[in-house]
Amino acid sequence: MKTIWTLIKLQFKARVALKKQPSLQKKIKFGIIVASLFALFGLFVFVYWLLANQFVSDNPLLDLRREFLIFTILGFQVLQTVFLIPNMVKSLDINNERELLLKLPITHKQIFASKMITGYLGEILFATIIMLPILIAYGLASSMSWGFYLFVPIILIFLPAIPFFISSLVLYPVTKAVQFMKSRALLTSVSYLVGLVVAIYLYMQAIHTVMAGIMDSGNFRLQLEDNIYRIREVGRMFFPQGLFANMGSGEPLTILWSFFVLIGICGALLAISYFIAGANYKKTYMNETSGGYRSISRSHVSNPRSPLYATFKKDTLNILRSSNYTFQLLLMVVITPMLVFFVNRIAFFSSYQEFRNMGELDQAGGIAFGVSLFVLLILLPLVSSFAASNITREGPNIYHTKIIPQSYIRQLFVKIVIVMIPIILAVVASVLMLRIPFQPDILAPPQYLHGWDVWYLLLVGLFMAVGYVCIGTYFDLRNPLCNQLGDGELVKPTKHVNNIMGIGIVIGAVVGILAMIGGFADLLTFAPQWIRTIAIMGEHIKTVFFVFAGIFAVVSVLLLAIDGVRQYKKLEQ
Amino acid sequence: MAILKVKNLFKHYKNSKYISTRNITFQVNEGEIFGFLGINGAGKSTTIKCITGIIPFSSGTIEICGHDINSDAYNAKRNFGFVPDNHAVYDKLTGSEYINYMADIYKVSKEDRAERFLHLAKIFNMEHAISNQIMSYSHGMKQKISIIGALIHAPKLWILDEPMVGLDPQSIFQVKNYMREYAKAGNSVFFSSHNLDTVERLCDRAIIVHGGRVIREVDLNEYRKSGRNLEEEFIELTKNATIEQNKQRAELKVKEEKLAEQHGKVKASKMIIKEIMDEVSAEIQNVSEYKNPEEN
Fold first, then answer.
1. Is B93 within 8 Å of A314 when comparing Cβ atoms?
2. What is the value of ipTM here, to two decimals?
3. Distance, first Cα to last Cα, chain B
4. What is the distance in angstroms between the Cα of B38 and the nearest Cα belonging to chain A?
5. Do the domain assignments include residue B296?
6. Which domain holds residue B108?
7. A307/B104 CB distance under 8 A
8. B218 and B272 belong to one structural domain
9. pTM
């Protein structure tokens, strides 16, 4: 037991120890961050208090204060579980400290026990920091008696029990998945992307639902009694959280009964957690990681491929084996079509009613075109800017590209194609999104968008993408910035990447907004002169920008093709 | 037959107050191991970068197996393999992916690449690591995979920039042995080094550069026979040259300070650079006007 206690103390020291005395500037910065976080949290607690007041009523039929506490506790436990799983994986995965710990006269069971106890104590601390102000705000809003505050420490001690139990259940499979994915950058990136897509989808869907609700206010009435009944039913489903909430019931018998049941349940869950996690601990975390060495054989010799294919494969692998680069490149491919669809749908729904009332439904097509162009032009530079680090990403391997018997133009071509493939997919998918009806019975944008508009978006999207990619590569070629840290990957965007994004976003915003306004220029006959002037500009921006995009693409390609090789030769490592 | 011919090589980096290489001329013959010596900043790496096409040079010619590195870069590059001093290789590829990539670039047939790959992996004791990503390799292993990559197309000329730095004694022994084996097969090895002992034992000939100039060319076979000591000569030569160089640099600094008083720091710096560039141009002009009696 003494050994476990010593290990616990060591772990706490390791977590809080400062490596060196921070400078005054860093202390001030830290102080400002902490003060800002406190202010934000204070604001959150205040909003919570206001919200809690809404659920308090003298009428027992309408009083939902118990349910409010149940959902508060549930929300916190969900949050704690989300943070706890990676924390536990990180804490138990002792690869970094294995050699140090195994040199000491201690068993793996003692290490495990100390880690579990340290982990649980840390979670109590976390629960106290977050939940103590919230529970006090709840107590004040709900006019709780002193008995409630007496039980608050007990609530805080047992709150992490359920997250701890859930975490220990999923710990082993999560660790296995993490170990599997560590060496698979593409899988990691795809997992992040899926998560992001789901989040964006839910967010956009929520906005759409709220907007639809506002538009259709007739059916948006709160059916109070029915809702209260449903909330109570849902509340009853969360039995353990209900036990926590009973601490505020003010009835001695209920409190006593809930207290003992809670201790029993939480104690049992913690004991089960300890045995489940402990059972897998040794084999998962304490074994040496296998190097996986495989002796050379003829199978390692691949069939000859063309130098072009070899360069393409090498550059592709260099991107796909970096979760950072893969994510950057694939992010916009997935996000662009989604945003084109959702932003269009929101804009369409918000303007649909107006246009219908005015009997000018066909004007909605102009809005759809403007919105699509806006989204496309804003997002294109974000994904195309990846090309502005085409040369910089080579880092110390730039010499390789210069000593091999492979023309510079061919090597540049490969780099551009690799960036262009996902961009073309993004543009084509975005345009295809415009062919999907928003809602089968009401709206179908193809009815409002002209065929030429769709081709326009496709061509302009491709022209601008080619332009950004070639000009980005050219700038990077003229002045590559070997801004590399750690494992040699770029960890922050270079100035060329920032320039392409900045200029592109400004162009996208100006052209997109003008195109949107130009979309309903016919309806602005009675608007002030300056608005009509903008609308007229908006009508013409379409043609002007098409010509601009075409020239931009051609000039960028020519610049890279003609001067690119000279710049490549001039590069001095 | 000359495998590598460097003639009147000048290199001045843009905005630099010093000339990196001045009129460097030498040649490496078939079957020869050629050492390239000099203290830090002497111009060794710059010369190697010019030879391999990594950086452009101000004037002069470089021919590899008769192919000019500027006008016939493709064929010149096909005839050498290069191992840099920074051991940079594509970290995200596995050892075998990297070697196959290099073999594809140099259009090596499957039979040849299989034979060379297995042979070199065995020689450099890399047989058990080639399936792993290069990022997991040690410093020495990276150097060895870089060597295998440089030799997979069996180039006539093998260029190495300070190849022994950071290698363990066993690896140094393997590299040195393979250099001998490679030259014996009729190829040439050209490498820069600070290790005078290695150069003395391994090389047939060597040149010593200092301040961007060749200050001595030595026949090491003769040295070995006569019992002369390369290390002592190198120290003596470079010491005198360093004294001279420091004197010149001090004079340049005084001149720049005087100019700075009159015109400001930025303009003074620009004036000095222009003066250096004029000096380079004049020197290049002199070299091009000079006709070697042997050539006539």
1. yes
2. 0.85
3. 20
4. 20
5. no
6. 90-154
7. yes
8. yes
9. 0.70
